[in-house]
Recover the amino acids of this structure.
């Protein structure tokens, strides 16, 4: 009861948003606006506006091709321990969003205990010519754009870094000094670039999500044929990958009493 004795009044917009989230959570497949409206009894226009807001805040994710919605990655920040799906499944809608927005191949890598990167998921645009990399592909932990991110995160002693660098194989080799410079640049801006060094003719931008112990856990990369994306667009994708990495770290690994500083641009 309130101070004047009347019953408290629920905020309609909040109630509607919660109903819509419950509807998305109860469906095993992505759902369209009309189906959400029928299931919740909320008008279609109201559903559309709420879903648009939930998508912008990443509590829902939108598939523009199918015009459907499902729960988004930000839900994990509130209830990661209660959601019975894998981390990769939670992250996938963000991969799809970036693949569509940038018309490029977006890859999700897992950093393994044996110092490798393993490709565990990918998303791509149906409209663009693209590079093909199969699920399960492995590469050394410090190779490519992701490797620069891992090195930036681990802050390895120079002698150790030099030894690991010497064991890497590049189709277009770069010097160790250049590699170090690019690692320092990655530390400053939060994302890395490989312009045809790991594989000739292939440009990649990448970012890394570490856990609450600062151990590298997931890598995110956008891979395209060199020349398909101009410098400005590659930089925009790099920033978005860094934002995604920060969101994954905050949502899946960092406790609520820990502050995470987002990467600088």
């Amino acid at each position: 009861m309130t101070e004047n004795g009347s019953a408290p009044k629920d905020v309609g917009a909040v109630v509607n948003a919660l109903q819509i989230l419950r509807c998305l959570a109860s469906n095993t497949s992505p759902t369209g606006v009309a189906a959400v409206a029928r299931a919740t009894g909320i008008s279609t226009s109201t559903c559309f506006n709420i879903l648009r807001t939930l998508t912008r805040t990443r509590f829902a994710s939108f598939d523009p091709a199918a015009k459907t919605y499902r729960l988004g990655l930000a839900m994990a920040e509130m209830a990661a321990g209660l959601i019975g799906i894998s981390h990769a499944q939670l992250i996938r809608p963000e991969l799809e969003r970036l693949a569509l927005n940038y018309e490029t191949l977006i890859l999700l890598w897992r950093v393994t205990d044996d110092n490798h990167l393993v490709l565990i998921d990918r998303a791509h645009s149906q409209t663009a010519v693209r590079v093909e990399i199969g699920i399960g592909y492995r590469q050394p932990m410090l190779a490519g754009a992701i490797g620069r991110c891992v090195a930036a995160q681990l802050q390895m002693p120079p002698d150790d870094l030099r030894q690991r660098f010497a064991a890497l194989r590049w189709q277009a080799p770069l010097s160790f000094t250049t590699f170090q410079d690019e690692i320092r640049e990655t530390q400053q801006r939060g994302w890395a670039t490989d312009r045809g060094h790991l594989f000739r003719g292939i440009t990649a931008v990448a970012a890394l999500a570490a856990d609450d112990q600062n151990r590298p856990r997931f890598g995110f990369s956008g891979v395209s044929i060199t020349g398909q994306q101009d410098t400005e667009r590659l930089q925009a994708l790099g920033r978005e990958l860094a934002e995604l990495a920060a969101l994954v770290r905050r949502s899946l690994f960092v406790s609520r009493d820990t502050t995470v500083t987002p990467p600088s641009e």
User: Anything to note?
Assistant: Confidence is low (pLDDT under 50) at residues 256-265. The chain has two domains: 12-72, 85-253. The first strand starts at residue 60 and ends at 63. The chain is about 45% helix and 20% strand.
